[in-house]
Amino acid sequence: MTRPISATIDLQAISHNLCQVRQQAAHTKIWSVVKADAYGHGLKRIWPALASGTDGFALLNIEDALWLRQAGWRGPILLLEGFFDAQELALCHEYGLTTSVHSDWQLAMLAASSGKKPVNVYLKTNSGMNRLGFRPEQVNSVWQQLVSLTQVGEITLMAHFARADQPGGIDDAMVCINQAAEGLDIPRSLANSAAVLWCPEAHYDWVRPGIVLYGASPSSHPQDIAPFGLQPAMTVNSRIIAIQHLNAGDTVGYGSRYRATKKQRIGIVAAGYADGYPRTATDATPIWVDGVMTTLAGAVSMDMLAVDLTPCPHADIGSPVELWGRNVLVDDVARAAGTIGYELMCALAPRVPVVTL
Ligand SMILES: *Cc1c(COP(=O)(O)O)cnc(C)c1O
Fold this sequence. Notes:
It is a single chain. By secondary structure, this protein is an alpha/beta fold. The chain folds into two domains: 26-208, Alanine racemase (TIM Barrel, Alpha-Beta Barrel); 234-356, Lyase, Ornithine Decarboxylase, Chain A, domain 1 (Beta Barrel). The chain has helices at 11-24, 35-39, 43-51, 62-71, 86-95, 104-112, 136-147, 171-181, 193-198, 330-336, 341-346, and strands spanning 6-9, 29-33, 56-59, 77-79, 98-101, 119-124, 152-158, 188-189, 206-207, 234-246, 251-252, 258-259, 264-269, 286-289, 292-295, 305-308, 320-324, 354-356. The strands form three sheets. Strands 1, 10, 13, 14, 15, 16, 17 and 18 form an eight-stranded mixed beta sheet that branches. The mean pLDDT is 97. The structure holds pyridoxal-5'-phosphate. Residues 33, 35, 80, 160, 192-193, 208-211, 218 line the site of pyridoxal-5'-phosphate.
């Protein structure tokens, strides 16, 4: 018998979610964002589910870009943070990768490169997040330098929103972007998932959805995505491996955080923070046991966690448990653990066996 935890990745859900994105952004091209190993879902496993519907793949690591080329993807690939050194830039030329250019050092490296095939560039402007990109007032001069280089092919203006999930949250950024784009007749790529769903005025030429492809929410309110018919692509399951019968006053787990107030059954589940379940999860964290919603009981251990079995008296050794997925939204678990669904999915541990649907 093996340890009963596993993750199920639903490829049809991912294809379905891409279709839903297509409906929201019908007149623009789509970069499917597959960084961080496709948000923990496994790039190698899931890219075929996106390949027939997407216009391109956007990611971070050049290794992943080259892997996609080797796997047969001939369409556009965007390096969201661009090349990290001259060697990577040479690979962009060789393999036809589109690179973001966000800093002067990249501009200098481009000017010095001897790549034969011109490389397409995403000129990144800093529209208020203050992570990457040229200030709006610098963009025109950077653009002029880029167009003068024979090493450079098509140029697209790129920006990234800090709070597209909030009403009016892109207004200031759009002012910066319009300032950056003044006098330039070039395509734009601005929208992440939140802007795909809620800011149609920011769609322009290429959108860059990530989280919604995996069926989770880009906002801190999980119910916000309900109208869009997205399907969770990752479900993490385990089973109950032991039962404890508590008396009033008994405690559970490290630090004795959970204390029974009456006679009570709890179930011990084979899942812990070394599997990617958040150790910060509170006793209010929802968890699905044998068809019923219940809650966590006490601190999450490395390899185990405990659940309150009061709402599910029928549950016993071997009963199925869903940590997140179809029945328990990853966003609800994340919220109860003080984080976001993105982090939980990306942190799914390599030791969890994956089943592909
Ligand atoms: C990660 C990322 C995205 C996708 O963000 P989501 O919120 O997952 O849609 C888009 N653009 C850039 C530059 C990113 O880094």
